[in-house]
Amino acid sequence: MVMELRQLRYFVTVAEEASFTRAAAKLHVAQPGISSQIQRLERELGQPLLERSARSVRLTQVGEAVLPHARAALAAEEGARSAVGELTGLLRGRVALGAIPSCAVFDLPGLLAGFHDRHRAVEITLSESRSDVLFAGLRSGELDVAVAAYSGTEPPPGIEARVLADEPLVAAVATTDPLAAFDAVALADLRDRAFITLPPGPGIRSALDEGCAAAGFRPRIAFEASDPAMLAELARRGLGVALLPESAIGERPGELHGLELTRPRLRGCVSLVWRSGGPGGPAARAFLRYAVDTLTPGE
Length: 299
Fold this sequence. Notes:
Elements: H1 5-17, H2 20-27, H3 31-45, E1 50-52, E2 57-59, H4 61-87, E3 93-99, H5 108-118, E4 122-128, H6 131-140, E5 145-150, E6 159-174, E7 184-186, E8 194-197, H7 204-215, E9 220-224, H8 228-236, E10 241-245, H9 246-250, E11 256-262, E12 267-275, H10 282-295
Parallel strand pairs: 3-4, 3-5, 7-11, 8-9, 8-10
Antiparallel strand pairs: 1-2, 5-12, 6-10, 6-11, 6-12
């Protein structure tokens, strides 16, 4: 069996894009060439890897089993090339970075630009998603490093982290809300209020769900939004109680009133995260070292 890395790269790209047309555009290769090479790969393996239809392309059961091995083979090739590049003083490779939407904990564009200035031969990609999706991407190898949120003091299993921000979560209400006359409120006293929060997942939403469970009730979610700025604006308009990091109140002086949450107290944590053992490629490891040194100087 002669299996070419080109065939594996075509297969992985089609699987990720769920389309031969989008894969061809991404790889800058003619679509018939991609189709032909994947068919050759399927003949060599003796099993179809993709289910083709007029509208979409899906992995077969065999394709799902082959995909992680194909990614590993491509990562090994990249690692070999990058190792040679490191020895010659010219770091090459790719870094796949993920981040939660509207991450205002630090200057992410500045971090990327600083690394690019030092390693111009490295290709960096950035994608935004929920923290649970980012954690899954790290475990599968689709992502090398991410900026994600989680509740509690420990990251999820299989994930290592460097904390960037850890602060109290507060109940944010409009300045005209009756609660604005108080500085603190027990979470149980909010059982009859409408909550404004993030969609289900780690981080703020998980902290809210766990806190309400400990207080003996299930929160009534009126609005969900992935952008904390949207949560703040909905609360400012008097549409409910938003759960936000304490620092978010200071960004809207005179527009929102933040109440300290008691019994239980809730905290939000945003961290630089990567899969246990570290990223696989030299370029990704170099980016992680740079990010840690830049974001947590002196540690």
